[in-house]
Amino acid sequence: MSASLAASDPSIKAAAQTTGPSPAVMGTYARQNLVFARGEGAWLITAAGDRYLDVASGIAVNVLGHAHPRLVAALTEQAEKLWHTSNLYRVEGQERLAERLVGVTFADKVFFCNSGAEACEAAIKAARRYHFVAGNPDRWRIIAFSGAFHGRTLATIAAGGNPKYLEGFGPPVEGFDHVPFGDLAATEQAIGPETAAIMIEPTQGEGGVNIASAEFLQGLRALCDKHGLLLVLDEVQCGMGRSGKLFAHEWAGITPDLMAIAKGIGGGFPLGALLATEKAAQGLTPGTHGSTFGGNPLATAVGCAVLDAVLEPGFLDAVRQKELRLKQALAAVKDAHPDLVEEVRSQGLLTGIKVKVAPAEVVKAALAEKLLVAGASDNVVRVLPPLNIADEEIAEAAQRLSRALDRLSPPAT
User: Fold this and answer.
1) Topology of domain 108-290, CATH
2) Which of 197, 283, 302, 305 can bridge 230 by disulfide, Cβ–Cβ 3.0-4.6 Å?
3) Confidence of residue 20 (pLDDT cuts 50, 70, 90)
């Protein structure tokens, strides 16, 4: 089947035959020299028929795996009717998805966009604008945390504060004050007369799978209430069921004022959103923000189908059960490779393995075992399988990872 697919699609055949990435594509990624022709569940398949077990999921995007029948059906049905009308008009699917998100979260209002960075940009603008319309234009600064990653726009790299991402782009966008992740006292000390909001990922993905404690998140909520600030959550990576609840902040029993989501909500189709309370959304009036493609009929049709699946009875219970199986399997990998594995961190199916070598080495060794994982900061390799991964695929992923680490272990003497 894969051979006939390549033969019928010259572009796939040409891509499969190239010796390296095309020079026509801008080199903003250090891409693996690997081209996939199709996907099935937790597997990606090349034109030559080689099968790779994908436990990176497009960096926590493919929550239902590849080519899930329900998502394919939703996209196909909508594609035959209407693709784009712009937000100058009402979009039926957008209203339907917004109402459903409001029905299962803290939110009263939803703004749709195309990515996590855009959702975080919208959150930043909403937080600042909220204080402006409330008569406090001097309150515009936002407290953020070390290890954060909120996107790659100029404002979101400034919010993240990582020097690696800021280098070479001129003076960082003003208005962000950074404190250590998990340090409530430092957070309170950083609050000043210009502070508008506190922005945090309940679980940092790119930062190395750093999990905020329930006590810390509860403390941030209390600080915001005490000082009249907005609490902004970035659940782009840890949301949409990946933590074992629909959104990770639910584990702490709190609610935010603003929340950015993306990745999993589209199941592989570009879709992001800002969720807000009525109060926090009051500054975003006509003309203050927008998106050409945000909330288009194709994206929202897929988003509704993803939400259908994730909210099915028992689905999130199954995610929590799979987390236990994955943790047990990775604990065995750690025990077998104490020279290479320092720690396993996890919340739901957002898992990080802190290693004693460069994460890129583990990613490369895993690739040789036809296993796809993702690197992160703090010497962490992320394992982010589809939320519906089968138990036997979890076991297979652990076996392949163990063999990959065998490749990196020094020979016995």
Assistant:
1) Aspartate Aminotransferase; domain 2 (3.40.640)
2) 197
3) confident
